[in-house]
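Reviewers of the previous submission asked for a worked example of the structure-prediction workflow described in the proposal, so we include one complete record here. The input consisted solely of the amino acid sequence. No template or homolog information was supplied to the procedure at any stage.
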Amino acid sequence: MKSKVAIVAGARPNFVKVAPVLRAIQDLNPAFEAILVHTGQHYSPELSDVFFEQLGIRKPDLHLGAGGSPHGQQTARILEAFEGWLTSVEVAPAAVIVVGDVNLTIAAALAAAKLGIKVIHLEAGLRSFDRSMPEEINRLATDAISDLLLVSEPDGEVNLAREGVASSRIRYVGNVMIDTLARHIGQARNLAPALRTSDQPYALVTLHRPSNVDSEASLTAITDFLLDISTRLDVIFPVHPRTKGRLDAFGLGEKLQATSRPPFCLLWDTSKILPLCRGLVS
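From that input alone, the workflow returned the following structure tokens.
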């Protein structure tokens, strides 16, 4: 019988990281069966389905449907749902792999650890040293209860050693996001010409961190900065749903929309990124 390992994902950065791990288990480790659990932290097609399609990730074996809500509620929902599944299956997985630093990372790790199931944290040891960031709390707590810490860069080893983590629990494995980049660089290069507004260099903007978008002062400053850049450089801005909500709430959406023309390509619907971009820059 194959040993089962559950890989938990559910947010945009998770999908990029688990894609190569799933392939490696399938291609290189036939003794293991990978169970893909989608928590539903990111549930819109632009932040979930498109990644499965473009990265070639198979359909999840389990979808918890946690959805969006404040940090505490979301973490609790995922913990409850995942614990319910772990206790309901006839044979629990030998280990649970969690990735990154989002709410589902600590929720799934807690559920597994409390049931005596081994926890493996991929991308362990990263630190911002800013505890006002929810992600930093998730990192610290997950690393504290994980049995095996897979580090993506040398600083991760240094941070964990400083925190007293035994070296026997740490493995330096590299950055799996680079594995995804290497596999899909050809696709990315094929997309690039369709996004280009000219032969000149351009800026591609991604913006969604709470510390950047939840504060009106911060988001206003960033908006003004982007508008200033657009007078000198083509700017392509696929707007994250969270960011769109904040831009609208602070009255900045209309300000950007008025400038949504060459050289500023503003994409409100990221599921239609190519046709929208072609329309705006043609």
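The two ends are 58 Å apart (CA to CA). We consider this example representative of the routine output the project will generate in years two and three.
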